[in-house]
Amino acid sequence: MIQHIADSTTLHNGVKMPWLGLGVWKTKDGEEVIHAVKSAIQSGYRSIDTAAVYGNEEGVGTGIKESGVPREQLFITSKVWNADQGYDSTLRAFEESRKRLGLEVLDLYLVHWPVKGKYKETWRALEKLYKDGAVRAIGVSNFQVHHLKDLMSDSEVVPMVNQVEYHPLLTQQEVRAFCQANQIQMEAWSPLMQGNLDQPLLTALAAKYAKTPAQIVLRWDLQNGVVTIPKSVNENRIRENADIFDFTLAEDDVESINSLNKNHRYGADPDNFNF
């Protein structure tokens, strides 16, 4: 049972990844992201998730340095952006991310979106980075089952992680089942539905467990075996999002949240995006 903020899942290559992390999408570089990262680490978070396209890797790196927590205790993720996909360009993009973050080694590097005709070459570059020891684990983001099957049909390394939009209105059962069957750790972006938490069921469960709707959803993620990275720049909210380790949802409550699914996306569709 996941009962502590320091608890982690073990990826299929043996690397440990915290169940809870801070996402920094749309967090401004400079003071805002530095403060968010330091607040999270001071609140016990050990995982920070950024991406080249967020434009805040430098601030994330500064926050890590100023946090006072030894680098080896932290788990840092970044992602290669679509415009940089391809073999050589991915290797270059990784070097730039590493430089901005001020880190020798990244804990996890992801292919941000399944760009048609490109993601296999991009994956070959990630396999090289992994073999060279520049990154401790590699994975993908926004991959559907058919993308994963296509990638795995001729790759040497099975992705360790698939980070997808996942929340009560988009439970991605097919992707989740495939990931579980292939020892790919699923991870949720936008777990809090970009703040759209006004579901009667979530309100009722919040009252039942004396928690907030956000805390109910984040606990639901963990009990479904999904790593979660809620985004916030507010110190109190960052702490509140981490206050999910002192209660357990009853199994039928987990099921009732599962049944809210409407296949509703707040973000782009991995089969139909143009960026």
Automatic annotation (TrEMBL):
GO molecular function, one term: oxidoreductase activity, acting on the CH-OH group of donors, NAD or NADP as acceptor
Residues that coordinate or bind substrate: H112
Keyword field: NADP, Oxidoreductase
Annotated site, Lowers pKa of active site Tyr, chain positions: K79
Gene3D superfamilies, per database record: NADP-dependent oxidoreductase domain (3.20.20.100)
Nucleus listed as a keyword: no
Stretches of the chain forming a coiled coil according to its record: none
Domain of life: Bacteria
NADP-dependent oxidoreductase domain residues: 20-261
Matching InterPro entries: AKR (IPR020471), AKR5G (IPR044500), Aldo/ket_reductase_CS (IPR018170), NAD(P)_OxRdtase_dom_sf (IPR036812), NADP_OxRdtase_dom (IPR023210)
Active site (catalytic residues): Y54
Keyword Membrane: no
Family membership: Belongs to the aldo/keto reductase family.
Full protein name: Aldo/keto reductase
Annotated organism of origin: Paenibacillus xerothermodurans
